[in-house]
Design brief:
By secondary structure, the chain is of the alpha/beta class. The protein contains 7 helices and 8 strands; from the N terminus they run αβαβαββααββαββα.
């Protein structure tokens, strides 16, 4: 809760790091409220968007985040090994680069009178070496394809599939859905008397791929825009078999 986060912050807190959508529970964090909370204490907010980018609408200005990182794969349907980092423009001068390379320096090799390098303006200051262009091109192609489908349609479709998934699972006696009312594409649940690893194997044999998470031990289903009711019917049938 916001109250627990507020209680954990201290005058020494410089950076609060959170997941926008928890990969273990599917819960959507109140990012805008957390940003306001940490900014009141002169801190920064960094957000992991691995399970949010491509699943729910994102507005960096409305969220008020200082830093937002996201991968190219997962919900953005791109290749592994590539991603993006958003840095609020007025926070650029607050960051000190850990690594420096030719691309990250102003005019290539610019230094001040003391010999300190001068960082390039904007995002270029974080380019410390050679970019692996095939992965970057792949990510851009994936984003172009998603844009051609329509982001509003994608978000509404993800929500519809998630709602249907949870409704189907909730109606099975012996199944408990634990995610709550957040609809970001992830649904966590447990099956009475069935170990998560057993359920994952059983469902995989029937063409349904989900995963288990630990602490607590749960199952997690991901529903995206490319899923349909036939996929959810197979999930439902497989779970019912485990309980029969």
């Amino acid at each position: 809760t916001l109250e627990k986060v507020a209680a954990a912050l201290s005058p020494r807190t410089r950076l609060l790091v959170i997941s926008h959508v928890s990969w273990k529970s599917g819960i959507v964090a109140p990012v805008a409220e957390l940003a306001e909370l940490v900014h009141q204490r002169d801190g920064f907010l960094a957000v992991d968007g691995a399970q949010s980018a491509g699943a729910i609408p994102l507005d960096m200005q409305a969220l008020g985040v200082d830093f937002y990182a996201l991968p190219g794969q997962k919900w953005l349907c791109g290749p592994e090994g590539v991603g993006a980092l958003y840095v609020r423009r007025d926070r650029l001068s607050d960051l000190q680069q850990t690594y420096v390379g030719y691309p990250s320096m102003r005019d290539g090799l610019a230094h001040d009178d003391s010999g300190n390098f001068l960082a390039a303006s904007g995002a270029a200051r974080y380019e410390v070496g050679t970019v692996y262009k095939p992965a970057l091109v792949g990510m851009c192609a994936g984003l172009d394809w998603l844009a051609s489908l329509g982001w509003d349609w994608i978000y509404s479709r993800v929500r519809a599939m998630t709602e249907s998934c949870r409704a189907r699972l909730s109606n099975i006696p012996g199944v408990t859905v634990t995610t709550g009312q957040d609809f970001a594409g992830l649904t966590c649940f447990r099956i009475d008397g069935v170990e998560p690893a057993q359920a994952v194997t059983h469902l995989a044999d029937r063409g349904v791929l989900i995963r288990s998470v630990s602490r607590p031990d749960l199952l997690r289903a991901s529903t995206s825009f490319f899923n349909d009711e036939a996929d959810l019917e197979r999930l439902q049938a497989g779970v019912e078999e485990l309980l029969s």
